[in-house]
Design goal:
Low-confidence stretches: 1-22, 170-174, 179-187
CATH architecture of the domain at 400-634: Distorted Sandwich
Largest sheet: 8 strands, antiparallel
Number of strands: 24
Structural class: alpha+beta
Distance between the termini: 89 Å
Length: 668
């Protein structure tokens, strides 16, 4: 009697569903599901009896009532929607889709054109296929109960499947040359954008959240469920057979495979997916994270993202009963990564825009810290930053060196008005890292006087790529070049780090060009001002330039005195003056800064040029001094006490208003 009543109920549900959304049943899904999984007894019985429509209705009923699987990233019963997400969802109803920060949402047409690409920026097209508006649409459906969001979502979901087919991949026995030819054909068929493993994994990661949000909708029919599960399965199997070779993409893909295995345990392949994701994360963590805590791509943005990857995987595994998936050392590494993160934060909680990082402000940092504080409640330092100093404890040190990865921070204290200089000079890194060894950001009293240029674009057609390359130039950074060329080698070594005295010291060296090494020494004098000594030595000849990029706003150059200074009305200013052992010429150069993709602003930039004709080293001393009115700053002088370059030591002097300070270092 109970079975008969259940069958009648399922028939009624199928009838309603077919009225709301007409679609053929994809019966292939039954071969993908483990019908012996606990809770699927009715589904199996109906399927075995040949009643697949009823079986799928029973499967939908099972999912709508399933318990025991926890998604720590979402509460579908009480989803929160911020204004940006609400707009994203509303726009999507009219096929106006948001894809990438820096680009306005674009109208992809009534009959959606998934290949529409008005600006030939690769990231714009790649990220379109991440379908970021689906979750906001689901949240709006849950909050309002309005079926329009669900109906439109199902139509878009099916439209994407229809217009972005998964084309059979290249056979493994093909030669590299033949594979390249085949890859080009695949690109022509939209595969490069719609089915890049990174985008596939992103959609896979969102599948369960979307599923949770929309599964109660009338438009979420048994027929649609069959297609949804089939599509989820092919996404997971595509990722597991097309993992990226290395880097953050591989980590993202592994984390999302673990998600698929945990959130959809009914699939026959679920255990394989879950174990594959965990295995890769455990294997890659010691490869991709240096012993000092930084991710090896040396991009603060991707470093932050990788913290999120490792932590999200850990949280999902532990919440759903897979605590043994990750060893104790896994957690300890995440904490080291967080320590690295807060040590390169500027006093206002912003990150230096090194490499491909766009602007990240205090709100972004606080969101990170509050999440990490939940994961590591006993960590006093994380709690300090999460509560803006109200609770927990600040680190016991101020300045810190990460010698392996090449990040160095001089700091007066941990308050928002602190003075802090963050310098980047590390080993070779990946595609995201720019050829900028030796560059730095310097903040006095809440103002970043030397912000990094940013990246502007990830690349695309010739014009877009040219703009990206223009922001990556070594000459766009606070470092030294030969003939204005990009660094030929980026592999800096730390020769000295000493913060034990009243003057803190750093010496790093990079084999920048064939025949020319660049040694940069930084002195933080009495925790008040900075002296930077740059020495270019070797057999190479050419134009040696020492570049500086100042902040936007009222910046003045005094070419005759080799000096630059700011004139802000808030009495927070700096003066920069450079001295050289040879005849130098101060030249203004083109300066830009990009806080977001496709957005840029002009700023003052300049360089100090020496025509190096002999083997004599070019040696600069730059004094950066904070002052209320930098235009009337104290008289600054500097020079070399040891006139001849010494590979093992250096002695210099600085005079501020006649007061002489001797600075020196000695290398082992």
């Amino acid at each position: 009697m109970k079975l008969r009543f259940y069958i009648i109920s399922c028939l009624f549900m199928v009838l309603i569903a077919n009225t709301a959304f007409s679609q053929d049943l994809n019966k292939e899904v039954f071969s993908l599901i483990n019908l012996n999984y606990s809770g699927l007894e009715k589904v199996k019985k109906l399927h075995d009896a040949g009643n697949d429509s009823l079986a799928m209705a029973a499967l939908l009923d099972y999912y709508r009532n399933r318990t025991g699987i926890v998604n720590p990233d979402l509460n579908p019963e009480k989803p929160s929607v911020n204004p940006d997400e609400k707009k994203m969802a509303e726009d999507a109803l009219d096929h106006v889709f948001f894809s990438y920060v820096g680009f306005k949402p674009l109208n992809y047409g009534k009959d959606i054109d998934w290949t529409y690409w008005p600006v030939r920026d690769n990231e714009l097209r790649w990220q379109l296929h991440r379908q970021k508006w689906f979750i906001p649409m689901g949240k709006m459906f849950r909050l309002t109960g309005d079926e329009k969001y669900a109906r439109e979502w199902t139509l878009q979901y099916m439209d994407w499947i229809k217009k972005n087919p998964l084309i059979p991949q290249v056979k493994k026995e093909l030669s590299k040359e033949e594979q390249l030819k085949e890859d080009n054909k695949v690109d022509d068929n939209n595969m490069r954008y719609a089915w890049r493993p990174m985008e596939v994994s992103h959609r896979l990661s969102d599948q369960y959240a979307i599923f949770q949000l929309f599964q109660t909708a009338k438009a979420f029919t048994p027929e649609f469920l069959a297609t949804f599960l089939w599509n989820t399965h092919r996404h997971a199997n595509f990722v597991i057979t097309h993992y990226s070779k290395e880097g953050n993409h591989l980590l993202f893909e592994a984390q999302r495979m673990l998600y698929a295995g945990v959130f959809f345990p009914e699939f026959k392949d679920a255990e394989t997916w879950r174990k594959s994701g965990a295995e890769i994360l455990n294997r890659e963590m010691p490869k991709q994270v240096y012993a000092d805590g930084f991710q090896f791509e040396l991009d603060p943005g991707y470093h932050t993202g990788c913290i999120g990857i490792f932590l999200s995987a850990l949280r999902v595994a532990e919440t759903n009963g897979y605590k043994t998936a990750f060893p104790v050392g896994y957690k300890q590494t995440i904490v080291r990564m967080i320590e690295a993160y807060y040590n390169v934060l500027l006093p206002d909680y912003s990150l230096p825009m090194f490499s491909d990082l766009s602007q990240k402000i205090k709100r972004d940092a606080l969101k990170n810290f509050r999440e990490w504080a939940v994961a590591f409640p006993e960590n006093e330092q994380i709690r300090y930053f999460a509560t803006e100093g109200k609770e927990g404890k600040a680190p016991e040190y101020a300045s810190k060196a990460f010698k392996i990865s090449g990040f160095y921070t001089f700091r007066t204290n941990w308050t928002e008005k602190a003075t802090a200089l963050v310098l980047k000079a590390g080993p070779p890194a990946g595609w995201h890292c720019q050829p900028d060894n030796g560059t730095f950001n310097l903040m006095f009293n809440g103002r970043n006087f030397f912000p990094d240029a940013g990246s502007y674009s990830y690349g695309g057609d010739e014009e877009v790529t040219r703009m990206r390359e223009s922001f990556r130039l070594t000459s766009m950074h606070n470092t030294l070049t030969l003939d204005n060329k990009n660094l030929e080698t980026a592999d800096s070594k730390c020769l000295l780090w000493d913060v034990s005295g009243s003057t803190e010291k750093l010496v790093v060296e990079n084999p920048s060009y064939k025949g020319l090494n660049h040694r940069r020494s930084v002195f933080f004098v009495d925790k008040k001002y900075f002296v930077i000594v740059d020495e270019a030595y070797g057999t190479a000849a050419g134009k040696v330039r020492l570049h500086y990029q100042l902040c936007e706003g009222d910046v003045k150059l005094n070419i005759a005195e080799n000096k630059a200074f700011t004139q802000f009305d808030d009495n927070n200013n700096i003066v920069l003056k450079t001295f050289c052992n040879q005849s130098q010429q101060m030249e203004e150069q083109e300066g830009w800064i990009s806080y977001k993709a496709k957005q840029k602003s002009p700023r003052k930039a300049f360089s100090f040029v020496v025509d190096k004709k002999t083997t004599e080293p070019v040696r600069y001393i730059t004094v950066i001094y904070p002052d209320k009115q930098a235009a009337n700053a104290p008289e600054i002088k500097a020079g070399f006490i040891t006139k001849k370059f010494d590979a093992k030591k250096g002695v210099f002097f600085v005079k501020i208003n006649g007061k002489k300070t001797t600075l020196s270092f000695k290398l082992d």
